[in-house]
Amino acid sequence: MNAFSTLSFETAPAVRIARERYGSERSSTAAPRRCEMGGGVHVGPAFAFGPGLGSGVEGESADRSDMSLRAAALLLLTTLALAAGCDDEPETPTVIEAPEPPRAAIDIDDPSACASCHATVVEEWRTSMHAHAHHDEDPLYGAMRRFRMEREGPELASGCAQCHGPRDPSDPDSPASRVGVGCAACHGLASVDRGEGSRMGARALTYSQSGAMRGPHDVPASAPAPHGVGDAAPWITDGRTLCLVCHDAVSNPQGVANCTTGAEHAQAGADQSCTSCHMPQVEGASGAVSSRATHRSHAFMGPHHLWREGEQGTAFMASAVSATPSLTGTSLAVTLRNRTQHAMPSGFPGRMVVVRAIGFDEAGAEVWRSFREDPMTEDPDAVLNKVYVDAEGAPTMPPYATEIARDNRLRPDEARQLTWTVPSSVTRAEIQLIFRLLPPSAARALGLSEDPVAQPRPLLAVTVTR
Ligand code: HEC
Ligand code: HEC
Ligand code: HEC
Ligand code: HEC
Ligand code: HEC
Q1: What DSSP string runs through 13-47?
Q2: How much is the pTM?
């Protein structure tokens, strides 16, 4: 769909900004334009702001950017002519042209530079872990990175930044890296090439030299954007190829699988894309330059949203699993069904969900609990997690493991029943699902025990009465 055709008269903010930016004006002659009334399509002179930025799709000839850089006034004139009916041969209009603009009209690695035109997605993105993927912004990643660099050497840093700072992995502290997984990492791409499938992070990405931003829509070169534009990017529209660049599967040097979200999703024969769940359609336009009534959320909701304000994230997380309890005689049970299309929990190998059951008597007093201190020793079936061990069989961090000793997570689509025997005095029971980003032992090793990320958070709770 040609989104621009429906919104070309609603770009006042972009036009105003452009005019402010290129305020000093002089006259010149516009290139001829073509006008097709029937389809409502118009092609004006290429309207772009930066040499080499304008033509949009990578590899296109320089012609279109050579058609030169017009200031906002040109668009307004063209627009007025079109609005007036676009009859006959256009006379040569007098246009006001900007002086040579700087090479990049905006810094594509600065998400604040997008806000005037795409405000809603910028705000959403700021709440996402993609905006907190740099080691100074994410205490857990920062601590793990430090821990590993002390043991494995400083060379590790650029490897981590392949995915945590993909715009400039060779310098994890440059401004572009500090942004984390920013707009340009996903939209400033000329191509995605995973090789045989093992190439991940920035190694799989070729950035557009022209600074073109490609999204889910075909945007014609005439769009008044301060960045190049282009056709819809297939790796974006299929809802998964782009995500798998960083979320597919990573093994440690010993060949032991660490993160496997993409592989889990593929094995499950999933029929929903990553974006259909993680970028749901939400009300409202994506920003001032869009006339669409909805857009896909850029909050990239996931477990970290349980640690943040806001019900949206809690509701998203609760959608991960359904829990159906029953209480008959002295048997308490809950059936858990994984509603994601990958394992639950997925992703970072330290995640765990602990299922805790508490029984109350007629008077409402607590008379029973499925565990008191340590669920891994008292009720291990009720812990949905992975355990990594070294060659001696001792638990270790995933990067150093030689084996996965246990993977008790819910598989995609799995329904699993947990059962407990409770005292007959129990007339009501509550079953709680509790999420942890990392096990307490790892939090201690990383010096994070007091950090909020090391505290458990409720995922959901259900009650059942006899
Ligand atoms: C992790 C990758 C990723 C990041 C980071 C990202 N986007 Fe997107 N963006 C997407 C995907 C995927 C879509 C398309 C969703 C769909 O419609 O299927 C999209 C869609 C869009 C759209 C089209 C919205 C519409 O109206 O339909 C705009 C505009 C956009 N992004 C701007 C931005 C800006 C600005 C930033 C930075 C603040 C950003 N994006 C960060 C992946 C990303
Ligand atoms: C002065 C206004 C303006 C600014 C600032 C701006 N853009 Fe745009 N952008 C546009 C216009 C106009 C379009 C084309 C209309 C559309 O498709 O929404 C566009 C289109 C896009 C698209 C394609 C959207 C789609 O629907 O496929 C992406 C992605 C995008 N911009 C990203 C960015 C990013 C990232 C930044 C900041 C680095 C940015 N833009 C800054 C005006 C702007
Ligand atoms: C360039 C690499 C990269 C790409 C591409 C990418 N991600 Fe991410 N994503 C990350 C990193 C790195 C993190 C973790 C950041 C952290 O916790 O420090 C992350 C975190 C997440 C999270 C976890 C959020 C939370 O609250 O815990 C979700 C969900 C997610 N990404 C979804 C997506 C989706 C959907 C796509 C495709 C549209 C995508 N990502 C594309 C690198 C990427
Ligand atoms: C049917 C909906 C659905 C689909 C499809 C889906 N997810 Fe998820 N995903 C969820 C839910 C709900 C959660 C939260 C529960 C959890 O952490 O496992 C989640 C969690 C995640 C996390 C967080 C893991 C962590 O603990 O940091 C990442 C990353 C992620 N998904 C990426 C993806 C990617 C990439 C795809 C596509 C290959 C995908 N998801 C497909 C629903 C979905
Ligand atoms: C191939 C891409 C990739 C590389 C390389 C990578 N990561 Fe990540 N990392 C991710 C993604 C994607 C996530 C997001 C969430 C998930 O899947 O759970 C993540 C999440 C994390 C988390 C959890 C953060 C949190 O807040 O929950 C830690 C810790 C982490 N990475 C450490 C590292 C370290 C240290 C390195 C370098 C040795 C590294 N990562 C290299 C992709 C990568």
Answers
A1: HHHHHHHHHT---EEEEPPP-EEETTTTEEE-S--
A2: 0.86
